[in-house]
Amino acid sequence: MNCSISGEVPEEPVVSTKSGLLYEKRLIERHISDYGKCPVTGEALTMDDIVPVKTGKIVKPRSLTAASIPGMLGMFQNEWDALMLSNFALEQQLHTARQELSHALYQHDAACRVIARLKKERDEARSLLAQAERQAPLPASAATANVSALSNGKRAAESEDMGPGGKRMRPGVSDSIIAELTECNAALSQQRKKRQIPPTLAPIDALERYTQLSSHPLHKTNKPGITSIDINLSKDIVATGGVDSSAVLFDRTSGEILSTLSGHSKKVTSVKFVAQNDVFLSGSADKTVRIWQGSEDGKYDCRHILKDHTAEVQAVTVHATNNYFVTASLDTTWCFYDLSSGLCLTQVEDPSNSMGYTSAAFHPDGLILGTGTTGATVRIWDVKSRGNVANFDGHTGAVTAISFSENGYFLATAAHDGVKLWDLRKLKNFRSFELYDQDTPTNSVDFDHSGSYLAIAGSDIRVYQVGSVKAEWNCIKTLPDLSGTGKATCVKFGPDAKYLAVGSMDRNLRIFGLPEGDDASTES
């Protein structure tokens, strides 16, 4: 008789008292220990139900397959096939394991990205909370102040004190601030009387030999264009604002980008360094101004986001005290800010003026502010009284740039029709430069820090020697716009006029200066 499990003659036969079936003892013991039931009938079964069967010595018959060479070859073939099937199953399991591992790694990478984004949002929320705390409404003794409060990142308009006509009220410029501005003006005016041309200033014959020294691709290729430039004269760091919504800080000496400041949602229209405390300002077409604070590791963090304007911010200019600054916007207002707190002390709007502001600059002494408008008018303001004290007419098109000379007497303004020079003592235009054709506006003007040279940017870059009201202003150098766009948008003199930084409607910052060999011969 054969085993009911293996189908072979059992070596130790046993029989079930319940079913009467014959089994191999070792097989039924293992099955009962694993399942506890009969493998054939499925009834509950224990070893107590198993009875051994006594038989004579059993001699196993030889397997027919192993009795001949063809039978053995068949066995080997079967073993080989089983081995191949097992190998195939293992390969399938390996492929599945690899897919599961790849999926797990992808999920881990996605989780890391989500964590990084949440950390960034957390830091931004903390920054907004800190800003809200700094700009919390003033106490009852100063209830006239209206400071924008933030709640969960949104402006809490209901907490703002509104003045007549639904306009926000401002703390105003206090007597102590006016005294500070007046004291600064007196000190700078006194220094200006003793002012001398520095001996390290680049001479005229050096400027005549200026050529392009380098070109640096600072901004993105998909949104090319540099709209504004400023230079930290003490550190020789150049800042550029771009159409790509970012500002870039560039170390001219090493030729390396120090930091790329992102955060604005539209093009950056104006950039300015604050001479002290490693602070940087940027204004944008997204209607905001950002105050950036530098750190020891060279990175800049956004300390304040100012949202007091309702249209594009076109200009930012810093007062000589380095404690205050002004922003000018197309919303027909300009704002006077405290730098340390980011608080708008006053927002000036002239009811008789419906023209937005396109440019702005402080006079070197700090008590006069010049603004250019979309209506071709240059407006001069008394900073202490915030009153419009003079208007200069005569331009065609928007006034794109304003620059006061360090001598305190001259003002240069640029517009679609060229550049005009104004005598601030007599409040009149004494010279005009019509440099380009009717389709090419003049985009930028800049006096060097000594007041000896004037740079103008349009379809090319021209450098003039500063004369006087009666003496000629001679063009000593014309530099081509090498961007290929035909539009140089901004120009700035470096320290001692040793180089010119130029931005155009491509993404490159270009440095014009004297080659090293010529520089050595000039110094000798």
Features:
single chain, 524 residues, alpha+beta, Herpes Virus-1, 2 domains, 4-stranded antiparallel sheet, 33 strands, ubl conjugation pathway
Written account of the structure:
This protein is of the alpha+beta class and 524 residues long. It has 2 domains: 1-60, Herpes Virus-1 (2-Layer Sandwich); 181-513, 7 Propeller (Methylamine Dehydrogenase, Chain H). It is built from 5 helices and 33 strands. It has helices at residues 25-35, 69-134, 175-193, 204-207, 516-523; strands spanning 13-16, 22-24, 50-52, 150-151, 154-155, 211-217, 226-232, 237-242, 246-251, 256-262, 268-274, 279-284, 289-294, 300-306, 313-318, 324-329, 333-338, 343-349, 357-362, 368-373, 378-382, 387-392, 401-404, 410-415, 418-423, 428-433, 444-447, 453-457, 460-465, 475-480, 488-493, 499-504, 508-513. It has a 4-stranded antiparallel β-sheet with strand order 6-33-32-31, with no helix packed on it. A hairpin with a 5-residue loop joins strand 1 (13-16) and strand 2. The N and C termini lie far apart (121 Å). Residues 138-160 have low confidence and may be disordered. Residues 1-70 form the U-box domain. Pathway: Protein modification; protein ubiquitination. One of its GO terms (biological process) is protein K63-linked ubiquitination. Homotetramer. Component of the multiprotein assembly MOS4-associated complex (MAC) at least composed of MOS4, CDC5, PRL1 and PRP19 which is related to the PRP19C/Prp19 complex/NTC/Nineteen complex identified in other organisms. Associated with the spliceosome. Residues 132-172 are annotated as: Disordered.
